[in-house]
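User: Can you model how pyridoxal-5'-phosphate sits in this protein?
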Amino acid sequence: MDGSSFIKHGRNMLEYINKYIRNTEQFPVYPHVKPGYLRHLVPEKAPDQPDTWPSIMTDVEDHIMPGVTHWQHRHFHAYFPAGNSYPSILADMLSDAIGSVGFSWSANPACTELEMIVVDWLAKMMKLPKHFMFSTEGSRGGGVIQGSASECTLVCLLAARDRAIKDLQLKYPDEDKAVLLSKLVAYCSKQAHSSVEKATMIGFVKLRQLPTDENYSLRGSTLLHAIKNDEEKGLVPFYVVGTLGTTSVCSCDNLEELGKVCSERNIWFHCDGAYAGNALICPEFSYLLKGFKLLDSFNFNPNKWMMVNFDCSVMWVRQKELLISAMNVDPLYLTHDKKDETVDYRHWTIPLSRRFRSLKLWFVIRSYGVHGLQNYIRKHVQLAKIFAACVVSDNRFELIGQVRFGLVCFRLLGDNVRTELLLKTINESRKLHLTPSKVDDKFVIRFAICHPNANEDDITYAWNVIQDEVELILNPRMSSDSNQLNQCNNKEQENSSPIMHSLLNKLKNFNTNAQAPYFRTVE
Ligand code: PLP
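Assistant: Here's the modeled complex, given as structure tokens:
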């Protein structure tokens, strides 16, 4: 492709993207495809000769789009929002065009310097403790953009592990490193994201997933009890992950209490605020900063709730040298003569290669301004409260957890199977897309406000769909299936009963062949 074709197809692609974003609702929010659908639609081997642009784009429309889950759809309320906006898309285009691999200052000075500036901007926007900022006089800390929250939790665990092993080696100089490693224990709440468990698996350390209080919050006394138990067994607590906005129910751990326990014992205290951390840009959420001064590290994902595309998870550390000493390898081909005067981010991350991700943060923050971003978050919070009010107004349902951010967790009263069935029928209708979680053995439906321009009509629509589906499965006069469900519930039969099996099988197969209209833009 030469420059003039790039301009021609680029214009076409911008129009296509714009049309897609403006008309996503023409698609079903979740695709009508089965595993392996694409293999039958594209050639078995790569073309030997160049294909034409129109034929590539035709295949995008005919084969790719029908298999896409539309995360930017108005009726997508699953997981957490996937950040998106025009400025972010454009910034990523520029990053791709610059095409640099900014692993060190020397490899792309602007990439490193802009990253250092935007992470400080964000720290100020969120009123984070000054020890996290590069620009604070005498600061030993700083921020970095990682690809994901999972990486943040892992690299902080690696830094904490490195520090703990070095401390133990001073105490037990003759002990084998593997023996010392076997003594390390990390802690998080039962509601913490699975990435914490994965980090401990990769880091080869033990993990205690601790119970929470009635608000699904991990408390200091629970942590202290677990730590004392482990210390009595000769184990070494070294890493605690608190969560600000758990995935399952958006609860917040008591960071102040946990931080006190950690600082008394020199345990690395990390906070994962992947989604809810974004709310800290609004002053009304500043109360959540209680305990932040005790943190060794913190991360949140602008790619969830700040209109920045994936990938972009920002992480700060109090003492950057602890991270660097855990990750530093220094071959001659990567060194440069300015390395002592600045930051080389290759020592802060697992991959060596790094994209120019700060551009999208910079573009988005400048394009919307702090106030624009605050308003976006506030709108989502307001809509979540409206949806929660609908749930509360219907005595067949219960809310699970508090509604502070843009996530509402709810369930039908009674056996889990009712809520499981409701979720299944809603998702199979393709009218909404929702995902579940399990909170203290209760199966709950998570309703996340996701669309960047979500409004009250979307909530009304969603609540009407949910009401219709509830009627369908709970009202015995409306379907024979619901008769069966009621019989099943009355007899307190379990999910595994033959009646429930046949009902679930029926539900599995209905409504999967409908086709939705697609738009064609390539002549
Ligand atoms: N932590 C929390 C609280 C999350 O909600 C999620 C994902 O939703 C993650 C971590 C993992 O995020 P990532 O995909 O950036 O690794």
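A couple of observations from the model: Residues 78 and 435 are 5 Å apart (CA to CA). The pocket of pyridoxal-5'-phosphate is lined by residues 80, 148-150, 193, 195, 243, 245-247, 272, 274-275, 301, 313 (CB under 6 Å).
User: Helpful, thanks.
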